[in-house]
Structure formats: structure tokens, C-alpha cells
Amino acid sequence: MNICIIDDEKDNRDILSYIIKTYHKNVNIVGEGNSVKNGIKIINETKPDLIFLDIEMSDGTGFDLISQLEQHKPEIIFCTAYNQFALKAIECSALAYVLKPIIKESIANAIEKANVKVDANHKLLQYEVLNEQLKTQSKDKVRFLLPCVDKMHIIYIEELICCIAHSNYTDIHLENSKKITVAKTLKDIESILLNYMQFIRIHQSNIVNINKIVDLVRLDNNLSVKLSNDMELAVSRSKREE
Description:
Blueprint: E1 2-6, H1 10-23, E2 28-33, H2 36-46, E3 50-54, E4 56-57, E5 60-61, H3 62-68, E6 75-80, H4 87-92, E7 96-99, H5 104-114, H6 120-135, E8 143-147, E9 152-156, E10 160-166, E11 169-174, E12 178-182, H7 186-193, E13 199-203, E14 206-209, E15 213-219, E16 222-227, E17 232-234
Parallel strand pairs: 1-2, 1-3, 3-6, 6-7
Antiparallel strand pairs: 4-5, 8-9, 10-11, 10-14, 11-12, 13-14, 15-16, 16-17
């Protein structure tokens, strides 16, 4: 796998380069850049499979670089020192990130994710959804991507009814009785949905879209919600007041 490193801090580029060359012999570093402008030029020239991309640089952001890539669109792993900065957009587009200061374990995990290849159409969709997330002012018709072993699922926010945890997997229940199981924890899903006020975690195992609640059911001292797909989910005691 051929990669490029785009970061305006030389120390960060050196650390990344050292970790990759030392622990990932099957990865070739084909270029390094220190700005948005320089990064675009290097990507177009070297056509890497993957880029490690800084979010904040002297002449713009990593998102500015993405929006200017026209022909070659590599896989992207964002590097950032701010674990809240734009990570919602990154999660919604199913693109990986590592936090600074960079450690070898985080690089190993990111490269492992990058080795799960998607075809050209999926990659174009990743870029399209990322740009959509960054630009949209409306919460209607918003979508995000969730990767499975062999494909990516497009999830429209207004069609999502509830999410139910099963260990390290989550069942995503959608309108029209559609269900998708993804290899993400409910906590991972929650970090995506925090951007949308209509979702609430009503139990350790459940997240629901409050717009899809059609009834509240009280039985003895227990409370549950009935959803538009006829599912009934328990509300934990700690979530009742909310």
C-alpha cells in the first residue's frame, strides 16, 4: 500500500514516518506535504492508496484539500490534536482518524481499517457524504455511511427508528421493516447521532428517534416506548425523567 503524509508540522510527519517504516513494512511512503496546496500536488503526482491528513494547516484545512481533489481520491485517515474538532463529520462519512500525540497502536488500527478496501463507487460516495455533512445547514435528508464487511450502507436520519446493541454489534432498525447489523458498538453509533437532537439513549442497550415514538406504555412501575415499527423498548430508570 502506498501512502502520503500531509501535515504542516515536521515533527508529526517524522513521527508518522518512523512508526510506519518501523512497524509496517508492507506500507510505502511515496510523498510528504506540509500544506493544502503542496498536498494536492503530491497526491495528484503520486496517486497514493491512502493519505494521513492533518486537519488544521497554515493555508487551510484538510477538508479544503478534500474538496479540491478532482481525479485521484485516496482513502483518508485524519490526524488531529482536537478530539471534538469536526469528528462528527468524519464519523458520518465513515473515515478514520487518529489523535495526536500519535502512538504506534493508533497507527496500526488506522492502517488495519484502511486495508479493508472499498470499490471506486464507495470511495466517491464517501467524499460526497463528507462534503454534504460539512456544507449542509439543514438536518433534513441528512445521511451518513456505516461500513460492513462487504459494503457500505447509506443511512438517512429521518428513516432511522432505533438502534439496539448486541455486544460489539448494533442492529439499526429503519422504516419499511428494514434492519442493518453493523460491527460498531452502540457507543460508536451514539457519537454519530449526538449531532441530531431527535435521538436519545433510553437504555444501556437502546437509542431511539423520539420522532418515531407513538406511545408511552406504563405497566406497574415500568416504562417503555412503543415505536412506529411496533417495537416496544424498555426505558431505564435513570432515563425516565429525560
